[in-house]
């Protein structure tokens, strides 16, 4: 009889532990759902998953960020959030199993989870204050209370005489757990709906925007600038295909009527604050400009060309009395701040040297997409995006490089980063298996603000052959190229290099993306059948 009681007690303990783990998982789910609802009343970025994810991005070493971008592309943020949810689920399971034996300790663990989320939310660069802690705190308190209550439902239920002692009342527990799950799901769905309503207001506001015609339109793309070669990147990159690399786990949805831009700092004799309508009323210029991300590996996809519409940034700075350092101006760095707290630093000299630096409002004939900076972003040809292309911009401060390190500089990236001369083989693709005969090798090359003068291709260890260049649009755009190749059977390595308009050839030396962009020749291996 005693052995039966021991066995029954052991099974009861196992069952209690398993149901406790389930209680922990459900409590974690409830905490996140309630936090989602509360964040709708605060702001989406204050939610614990977004806040913790943002803090993780801020503290991730640059080499690991580069690996994530290379491995997951624009899905890196989704992978991060799924990873966070996975860790939270495991944490919740452990807390629930612990709470089955130590009820208060398990619940206290949920509160600790909320404290981490609150600390992450309030320490973010875009934090608006203590209210950012509310979603994590309220969610954690509700989750802890639910775990305490659910574990209490696991108290033994009486059994009939001779049945071996009391057991768990699983029916009572399942009813309680089902009710909690239903209520939590309702809270989460309501939170999502409220978030969606806020985002919908921004979407409708963007839809109502009518961009005025430019006072200085871009010239038509020259005939022959876009080659008719299957597999080559299009000269103009469609908005839906334009690369996106940033740290925003939630794309800001800004209503333009609530947006403004402040220009201030060293050397500013007249501070400006401009609304979106103010910018729309100014003379706008339209330019084709190729942008490149510093995280782009040799041969990588993070480059694209668009037709941008915006206000010349130099004219606004001149209105503010700003002078470049070469003319005695005290500021050598322009710090752009985004609504999500991102900071980028651009050399003042570059913005004022005559290039078409823009506060862009339009992209390829429409208002900026939200993912690409609506309502306003910076575009500066010739510089990598991390020192020039601030999306969702709301503040420009004139300062010095000695006085202030921006987000990426604090993480060991270079203060100054002109785009390096690069070339890429788009077709044939790596490991392609073309038929013998004439195969067109083609791709793109870029050296923004210098222009591409020559592209050469080498097959295996043979001589370099000059490729045919497409017509040039401007020196601020990439240039397509092609070369017919008489392909013979076997494996071959195709290599490309470019020379910019200054006569400087693209270097063969391979370097990492950090600190100021990758370098090296792009090669692909193909096997001719």
Architecture blueprint of SSEs:
Layout: H1 2-42, H2 48-59, H3 62-72, H4 76-99, H5 103-122, H6 134-152, E1 156-157, E2 167-168, H7 170-207, E3 260-265, E4 272-275, H8 276-281, E5 285-292, E6 303-312, H9 313-319, E7 333-338, E8 343-347, H10 348-351, E9 358-363, E10 366-367, E11 377-379, E12 393-399, E13 422-427, E14 437-446, E15 452-459, E16 465-466, E17 468-469, E18 479-487, E19 490-500, E20 522-528
Parallel strand pairs: 3-12
Antiparallel strand pairs: 1-2, 3-4, 5-6, 6-9, 7-8, 7-12, 9-10, 9-11, 13-14, 14-18, 15-16, 15-19, 17-18, 19-20
Helix pairs in contact: 1-4, 1-6, 1-7, 2-4, 2-5, 4-5, 5-6
Q: What do the pLDDT scores average to?
A: 92
Number of DSSP strand runs: 20
The helicity comes to 25-40%
Order of helices and strands: HHHHHHEEHEEHEEHEEHEEEEEEEEEEEE
Strand order across the biggest sheet?
A: 4-3-12-7-8
* N- and C-termini, Cα separation: 78 Å
What structural class do you assign from the helix and strand content? alpha+beta
Task: Describe the largest sheet.
Answer: 5 strands, mixed
Total helix count? Answer: 10
Strand content: 15-25%
What sort of overall outline do the alpha carbons produce when their principal axes are compared? globular
Integer-rounded radius of gyration:
29 Å
Q: Which spans have pLDDT < 50 for at least 5 consecutive residues?
A: 1-10, 160-165
